[in-house]
Amino acid sequence: MELGIFGGTFHPVHLGHLRAAEEVREALGLARVLFVPAKLPPHKDARAVAPPEVRLDLLRRAVEGNPAFGISDLELGRPGPSYSVDTLRELRAGLAPGDRLWFLVGSDAFREIHTWYRYPEIFALADLAVMSRPPDAAPPAPPAALEGELTPTPGGLRHRSGREVRFVPVTLLDVSATAIRRALVQGRSVRYLVPEAVRGELERLGREHPHWFSGSLT
Fold it and tell me: What distance in Å separates the CA atoms of residue 101 and residue 21, rounded to the nearest whole number?
């Protein structure tokens, strides 16, 4: 089985997240994509993020109806910050020896992956699917800090651990979580930016809990 792992704050989940996951799933022939919401992202201010149980509920509503999408809430029960390497290790432990993990990351995140907590272990645990959108559709250059660790292949790169880095172009949807949060705080519609299954609840939360969405508008 080939399983994709898509982590993030999902604050909030939107159509760009879902479409990118669907295109990676199709391009790599993945059996399933698991969305993994972070409890306390190490690079974000927790005070500016809606409670994890709220983001989890919205994510569940968003992926319902797609049998190839699932959710893991393992990061929500873990104390302290959410580190990708810990998540991948836990998920790997539950798989059969022949199963393959693909870690979905954006091209910006890939350029900075050498700054992540225990990043060499990420390559030991999973192959990477690097998502790029126009006008940044060309495969990003490997981080200079990883020189000597990655070699070119016909489909992307190979890490010295033997894991693949595959570049997957995905459709540009001009949707950003920041713009959605701004619209919610201002009481404007988010129709056609988020799945219809979550739109009504999101707009209600924006009215009743604007502080969840106003702390990270830049």
Answer: 14
